[in-house]
Amino acid sequence: MSLLYITAGILHFVYPRFYLKITPKWVPYPEKINLFIGGLETVLGIALLFENTRFFAAIGIIALLIAVFPANIYHFEKSWKRRKNVIFTLLRLPMQALLIYWAASFL
């Protein structure tokens, strides 16, 4: 799980255009939010590696997954309208629940 979040976090810095395209229009300062989310995912992924920070990292990951869920819905809606990546973005929605469940297993 740690590797998943560290990698996802780094990708926010490497491919910011991808994340900015799926950021809802109502999100203020999307470039800064993208970098913040990427940094947060990276830090939380690293914090999962250590027993004394794992509990707080898991709580942070759960909160983050809930916070970014509207962006995943937005991404699905965009995909639906364009008829591209519909299955992937649809499957991603229930995947959030599985990721939350996985993070909760560290509590």
How does this structure look, described?
This protein has 107 residues and is mainly α. 82% of the residues lie in helices and 0% in strands. Helix 1 runs antiparallel to helix 3, helix 3 packs across helix 4 and helix 4 runs antiparallel to helix 5. The two termini are 14 Å apart.
Features of the shown structure:
globular, single chain, mainly alpha, 107 residues, 0% strand
Structural class: mainly alpha
Largest sheet geometry: none
The Cα radius of gyration reads 14 Å
The pLDDT mean sits at 96
Number of strands: 0
Q: Could you spell the SSE succession in H and E letters?
A: HHHHH
Q: What's the assembly state of these chains? A: single chain
Name the helicity range. over 70%
Shape: globular
Q: Ranges with pLDDT <50 over ≥5 residues?
A: none
Beginning-to-end CA distance, first to last residue: 14 Å
Number of helices: 5
Beta-strand content: under 5%
Structure summarized in a few sentences:
With 107 residues, the protein is mainly α. It contains five helices and no strands.
